[in-house]
Design a protein that fits this description.
Strand order of the largest sheet: 1-4-5-6-7-2-3
Number of domains: 1
CATH architecture: Roll
Order of helices and strands: HEHHEEHEEEEH
Radius of gyration: 15 Å
Distance between the termini: 32 Å
Strand content: 35-45%
Structural class: alpha/beta
Length: 164
């Protein structure tokens, strides 16, 4: 995996961090899935590309929300594809980007994360403040799959691509 691509992408996600005391966790099934996903957000917040790459693995299946400006490569397969097609693209398009998880709900190896994205689109100057739901499937200590749900109207509005 190209470490430079993953590092640049991780820096684009450096503001993805738990919102502290407002973060709620509900877990059933006794797995470590929540810890793996929390580690992903912590690594993104720290810009820790090595940990992000290890957590995603070479065969992760990553899907951005349908209608998202970044869904064109769905599904992104492997950490390098996610880094270049998603993290790097978002980091280049948005200043002060943050994806802040607020609630984790886990059933077995599936973790659902509710949160908010914020940032300012570099090309349009439009602010982003959109809800998200992330659905992770975890296998052992790695993220096997990811599905994003978000307000794609807002993403397209801020990026100036509503007519696409």
């Amino acid at each position: 995996m190209n470490k430079a691509i993953v590092l640049a992408a991780a820096l684009g996600l450096a503001a993805c961090q738990p919102s502290g005391s407002n973060t709620a966790v509900e877990e059933t099934g006794g797995s470590n899935a929540t810890a793996v996903v929390e580690s992903f957000y912590a690594a993104a917040a720290a810009g820790d590309a090595e940990t992000i790459g290890a957590l995603l693995g070479d065969d992760v299946v990553w899907n951005e929300a349908e209608g998202s400006p970044f869904a064109g490569g769905n599904p992104y397969i492997g950490a390098e594809a996610v880094a270049g097609g998603v993290f790097g693209a978002i980091g280049a398009a948005y200043a002060d980007f943050a994806g802040v998880p607020e609630r984790f709900t886990t059933e077995g190896n599936r973790v659902v994360v509710e949160g908010r994205y914020t940032g300012t689109n570099n090309a349009t100057g439009e602010p982003l403040d959109a809800q998200f739901v992330h659905v992770f499937t975890v296998d052992g200590d790695t993220i096997e799959s990811f599905q994003q749900y978000t307000d794609t109207f807002q993403w397209r509005r801020t990026s100036g691509t509503l007519e696409d």
